[in-house]
Specification:
Layout lengths: L2 E6 L2 E6 L4 H7 L23 E4 L6 E2 L9 E4 L3 H16 L15 H8 L23 E3 L9 H8 L6 E3 L6 E3 L16 H5 L5 E3 L3 H9 L4 E6 L20 H11 L3 E4 H22 L5 E2 L4 H10 L13 H17 L6 E7 L3 H5 L15 E4 H10 L21 H4 L6 H15 L17 E8 L2 E9 L1 H12 L7 E5 L16 H6 L2 H15 L9 H11 L5 H7 L12 H13 L1
Parallel strand pairs: 1-5, 10-11, 10-13, 12-17, 13-14, 16-17
Antiparallel strand pairs: 1-2, 3-4, 3-5, 6-9, 7-8, 15-16
This protein binds iron/sulfur cluster (3 copies).
């Protein structure tokens, strides 16, 4: 690698030739503030907060896009630099809705942090304060343009997903981030993944809150409120209470839910085991019957919507299995309702998810059973944290507690659903045992782990060769599906997760400031926590879960039975959503914004 010598604030160091000044400074432990910059996602030099002085260059330069060169001398902390950065933040604040105290991102807003660090005690400019309407028509995402700083991190995140739902419209003071023609997100090809929310430095994007709806249910003595939690939530919820990224807080999470007043605390992991029973057998059936192959997982509603909108020719390849929390919703309102002697109409099911797309998923008509919803509300990991804080529960002091029976028992296989490659590994653990007819010692499938966007492997089970692939993030799914469409490659079984890294990095997870993302690999740390929980579990294969064995004996009879089909499976249909013309317009608008 070609290196160049750079001096920043008097420190001289050799750094790779392709580095920007920001990256070079970071490698020397010199902090340069940023706002529009987001590592690996957005590098456009738009906000001019990262200004520095470079000897020989005219005027101040934006360090996030300025490339280093041999012998370069940089100063990051002169009076001129500090003054210019402060003015730029004041200018942004002058046109910003400054209702910080009531903002969802209060104390976790990158603009607020900069204002504090730059010692902004007065705003010397009168911005053009246009009041924009808030877009809250989407079931998942609320857009408040009044809090937008036009950093375009959301656009870059959406473009990475190759959805192109949002772009920049109008010019100058009237610039606004929105879908084409100022439409609502609900009238765009948005797949509800929430990657824009976790990329946004301010409160301009947030999830559609279900907190009040859940409090109402909890306060109603006639309603039996059941909560379930997805695997990725336990690996991230602690961050909201000061734990280091990658800390597992399963027991404290359960204890907090009990203190919030939920009547039963069940584990979506149980339903992940159920999914493996159904999907593993679906794979074997399709392999025996010659297709349709590849079988593609369907547990990520962001991915399913992407498939419906952009790749409808693959809809028949989607597994017919509902996602785990929808399966558990159906089981709670039938099996559990019968066992507990409670009318399904009196049960209110809440899913705590790392995901904003699940808020959309529960509204899909295909998911209703006998005309009633099987999951009544979805809370993101962030919303659960807000409820715990609102209830004055001292999370860090809580003792660990266990999930309730009978739908709280789970295996290591189900926990790894939270990370890319996890569904594939869990399925292989069960399918291999079924095909070989014995309890194999092999549990770990290292070849499917990791965070690369697309991974593939050949697995041989009892002489049968199964070609598998894994994609995470819909941008990577697109690459994989295009390769299949062109005839370049073929697979028997594919796992696709809508978010980069899988659910550990879902749109409902705690928001990590960009400066921390420069130092830490958030996805890798959360994934490590998930694999730790798997390794600690006494049972690590879905078909060995005693409660899964029991529910088949007592209720479902066998995988893919008539009752299983009725409760646990669905069918997706080709939909004319926002494809063709609208998508082209969105892509044009998003590309123009780059
Ligand atoms: S939710 Fe996902 S698809 Fe929708 S605008 Fe945000 S990033 Fe784009
Ligand atoms: S909505 Fe958020 S991420 Fe998007 S441009 Fe505005 S401030 Fe930046
Ligand atoms: S990957 Fe997980 S968090 Fe992201 S859309 Fe899919 S289910 Fe939701």
């Amino acid at each position: 690698m070609e290196m160049v010598k750079v001096t920043i604030d008097g420190i001289t160091k050799e750094v790779p030739k392709g580095y920007t000044v920001l990256e070079a400074a970071h490698s020397m432990n010199i902090h340069i503030p940023t706002l529009c910059y987001l590592k690996d996602i957005n590098k456009i030099g738009a906000c001019r907060v990262c200004l520095v002085e470079i000897e020989g260059a005219k005027g101040l330069q934006t360090s996030c896009v300025y490339p280093v060169s041999d012998g370069m001398v940089v100063r990051t902390n002169t009076a001129r630099v500090r003054k210019a950065r402060k003015y730029n933040v004041e200018l942004i604040l002058s046109a910003h809705d400054r209702s910080c105290l009531t903002c969802i991102r209060n104390k976790n807003c990158e603009l607020q942090t900069l204002a504090e660090e730059f010692n902004v005690d007065e705003i010397h400019f009168d911005g053009d304060n246009i009041h924009y309407p808030i877009d809250d028509l989407s079931p998942s995402i609320v857009r408040d343009p009044n809090k937008c700083v036009l950093c375009r991190r959301c656009i870059a995140a959406c473009n990475e997903q190759t959805v192109y739902a949002i772009g920049i419209n109008n010019r100058g003071f009237r610039s606004i981030i929105s879908p084409v023609f100022g439409r609502s997100l609900n009238e765009s090809p948005c797949i509800n993944c929430g990657q824009c929310i976790i990329s946004c430095p301010t409160g301009a994007l947030r999830e559609k809150s279900s907190i009040e709806k859940v409090w109402d249910a909890l306060n109603d003595p006639d309603t039996h409120v059941v909560v379930q939690t997805a695997p990725a939530v336990r690996a991230a919820l602690g961050e909201e209470f000061g734990y280091p990224i990658g800390t597992l807080v399963t027991g404290k999470m359960v204890a907090a839910l009990k203190r919030l007043g939920f009547d039963r605390v069940f584990d979506t992991d149980f339903a992940a085991d159920l999914t493996i029973m159904e999907e593993g057998n679906e794979l074997l059936k399709r392999l025996e019957n010659g297709g349709p192959l590849p079988l593609i997982t369907s547990c990520s509603p962001g991915w399913v919507k992407f498939c419906e909108e952009y790749y409808p020719e693959f809809i028949e390849n989607l597994s017919t299995c509902k996602s785990p929390h929808m399966m558990l919703g159906a089981i709670i309102k039938t099996y559990y309702a019968q066992k507990a002697g409670i009318e399904p109409e009196k049960i209110f099911v809440v899913s705590v998810m790392p995901c904003t797309a699940k808020k959309y998923e529960i509204e899909r008509p295909e998911m209703a059973l006998y005309g009633i919803k099987t999951v009544d509300a979805v809370l993101t990991t962030r919303e659960l944290a807000r409820m715990i804080k609102e209830a004055n529960i001292k999370f860090t002091s809580l003792p660990d507690e266990d999930f309730d029976d009978p739908l709280g028992e789970s295996t290591g296989a189900s926990v790894i659903f939270g990370v890319t490659g996890g569904v594939m590994e869990a399925a292989l653990r069960t399918v291999a045992d079924i095909v070989e007819g014995k309890d194999l010692d092999k549990i770990d499938y290292q070849q499917v782990r990791g965070l690369d966007g697309v991974r593939e492997s050949l697995v041989t089970i009892n002489g049968m060769e199964i070609k598998i692939a894994i994609a995470n993030g819909t941008g990577n799914a697109r690459k994989l599906l295009d390769a299949i469409k062109s005839g370049e490659t073929f697979y028997h079984f594919i796992e696709i997760m809508g978010c980069p890294g899988g659910c550990i990095n879902g749109g409902g997870q705690p928001i990590v400031p960009s400066r921390i993302k420069m130092d830490l690999d958030v996805k890798a740390l959360r994934a490590k926590a998930i694999y730790e929980e798997d390794a600690q579990k006494a049972i690590r294969k879905s078909h060995k879960n005693p409660q899964i064995i029991k529910i088949y004996e007592e209720f479902l009879k066998e995988p893919l039975s008539e009752r299983s089909h009725h409760l646990l499976h669905t069918e997706y249909e080709r939909k004319e959503l926002y494809s063709s013309k609208n998508n082209k317009e969105n892509k044009k608008s998003a590309t123009a914004a780059k």
